[in-house]
Amino acid sequence: MKLYLKTKDYSVSGETFGLYWDADLDMLVTKPQPKDLAPYYQSEAYISHTDAKSSFTDKLYQAVKRKNLRNKLQLVDNQENKTESLLDIGAGTGDFLAMAQKSGYTIAGVEPNVKARELAMAKGVELNSSLKELAKQKFQVITLWHVLEHLPNLEEQIGSFISLLEDDGTLIIAVPNFKSFDAKYYKGHWAGFDVPRHLWHFSKTAITKLFQQHEMEVISIRPMWFDAFYVSMLSEKYKGNRLYLISAFFVGLWSNLKAIFTKEHSSLIYILKRKK
Known about the structure:
By secondary structure, the chain is α/β, with parallel strands linked by helices. The chain has one domain (2-225, 265-274): 3-Layer(aba) Sandwich (Rossmann fold). It contains eight helices and ten strands. The strands form two sheets. A six-stranded mixed sheet has the order 5-4-6-7-10-9, with helices on both faces. Strands 1-2-3-8 form a four-stranded antiparallel sheet, with no helix packed on it. α4 (154-162) links the parallel β6 and β7 (165-176). The longest helix is centred in the first third of the chain and has 22 residues, at 56-77. It is globular, with a radius of gyration of 18 Å. The two termini are 34 Å apart.
């Protein structure tokens, strides 16, 4: 594979990694991929595993997260088939499942991080540490919100969670899009790369081809509008820009405006079902 660019872990370790382009799938692969990824998540800087509200960035993240949670649940509600059972993989601190539970869903979740599971438990959401604990169950909807890019042994993992989906079930996957304007603008500083926690970096072609191998097809693609602003804000901070909020607003706005025509938003939600 050809080197696409070099970037570094701005959140935790400061280590440098390469992103290599897989031409067959049109996706990027992080190299090297650490054998033990756990230390790269053990930081308050990794906000998905905390409910931190100490800094302005934390507070902004939590505010955007609340809005996104409502949008995510509405997307699940809007699926054609009556949805009762919901599995969220990479559930973090359990906010999405807590909201779904209050709305009447039978929920289950997977989260390998111990601290995140403890925070979820305090919200009344009991999470499993791995998919193996759910091996005999089936779900009408399975969601992965910015999780697929974190999973080692990608092909094996995809097969594992698809096996838990009802025949007429729906798979909903949100991932960053390295074809977006903000990704191309920030290059190695783009927060959406988030190496080495993000092992894979997907395009529309990559998602289509990866899931075709498992008899799944993309039936709809939705944008995540807020991501362009939040990712741009982090990217500007990585660049050391003291006026990061102002710059991020304009880059995020321009990215979203361009995506109206290119359909290449900062992050995309893919809705998939089994081929008929």
